[in-house]
Structure formats: C-alpha cells, structure tokens
C-alpha cells in the first residue's frame, strides 16, 4: 500500500522528469536555431562574395567601354586628318 508520502515523492519525480524533458526540448530548439543562424551567416557570406565579383565585373566593363570610346574618337580624328591630307595632295596634283 502506498503512503501519501510515497505519492508525493512519485509526483515530484514525475514533475522533475517532465521538467527535464521540457528542458531537453528547449535546448534542442536552441541548438536548431543556432544551426539555422550559422547556415544563414554562411549563405550571406557567399552571396557577399558573389556581389563583390559582380561589382568588380561591372567596373571592369565600364572601364573597357570608356577605353573603347576614346579609341574610337582617336580613329575618327586620324581618319579625318588622313582624308584632309589626301584631299590636299589630290587638289595639289590636279591644279599643277
């Protein structure tokens, strides 16, 4: 036969066991959240690297376009100068 004291001890043991299980669940949840944040941090770091790479490619492309525009202007000016010189030579030949 169970004494009231035994019932109290069993209730306390059961309550302690439930609290331990609850603490284990909470600890597991905290560990899961921690893992999620670690993975999120890794993804953000990887995407930052990709963004930096894209940014450097855009800058490189911009510099190439600028250089191409300068070269095109030089070619146009040289072509005009050569045409003017050829025109002067042709005019000089026909008027002599």
From TrEMBL:
<feature type="domain" description="T-SNARE coiled-coil homology">
    <location>
        <begin position="30"/>
        <end position="75"/>
    </location>
</feature>
<dbReference type="InterPro" id="IPR010989">
    <property type="entry name" value="SNARE"/>
</dbReference>
<dbReference type="InterPro" id="IPR045242">
    <property type="entry name" value="Syntaxin"/>
</dbReference>
<keyword id="KW-0812">Transmembrane</keyword>
<comment type="similarity">
    <text>Belongs to the syntaxin family.</text>
</comment>
<dbReference type="InterPro" id="IPR000727">
    <property type="entry name" value="T_SNARE_dom"/>
</dbReference>
<dbReference type="GO" id="GO:0006906">
    <property type="term" value="P:vesicle fusion"/>
</dbReference>
<dbReference type="GO" id="GO:0031201">
    <property type="term" value="C:SNARE complex"/>
</dbReference>
<dbReference type="GO" id="GO:0006886">
    <property type="term" value="P:intracellular protein transport"/>
</dbReference>
<dbReference type="GO" id="GO:0048278">
    <property type="term" value="P:vesicle docking"/>
</dbReference>
<keyword id="KW-0472">Membrane</keyword>
<dbReference type="GO" id="GO:0005484">
    <property type="term" value="F:SNAP receptor activity"/>
</dbReference>
<protein>
    <recommendedName>
        <fullName>t-SNARE coiled-coil homology domain-containing protein</fullName>
    </recommendedName>
</protein>
<keyword id="KW-1133">Transmembrane helix</keyword>
<dbReference type="GO" id="GO:0008021">
    <property type="term" value="C:synaptic vesicle"/>
</dbReference>
<dbReference type="GO" id="GO:0000149">
    <property type="term" value="F:SNARE binding"/>
</dbReference>
<feature type="transmembrane region" description="Helical">
    <location>
        <begin position="76"/>
        <end position="95"/>
    </location>
</feature>
């Amino acid at each position: 036969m169970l004494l009231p004291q035994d019932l109290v001890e069993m209730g306390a043991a059961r309550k302690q066991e439930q609290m331990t299980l609850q603490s284990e669940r909470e600890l597991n949840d905290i560990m899961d959240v921690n893992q999620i944040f670690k993975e999120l941090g890794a993804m953000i770091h990887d995407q930052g690297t990709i963004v930096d790479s894209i940014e450097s490619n855009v800058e490189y492309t911009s510099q190439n376009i600028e250089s191409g525009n300068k070269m095109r202007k030089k070619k146009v000016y040289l072509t005009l100068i050569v045409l003017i010189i050829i025109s002067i030579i042709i005019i000089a030949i026909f008027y002599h």
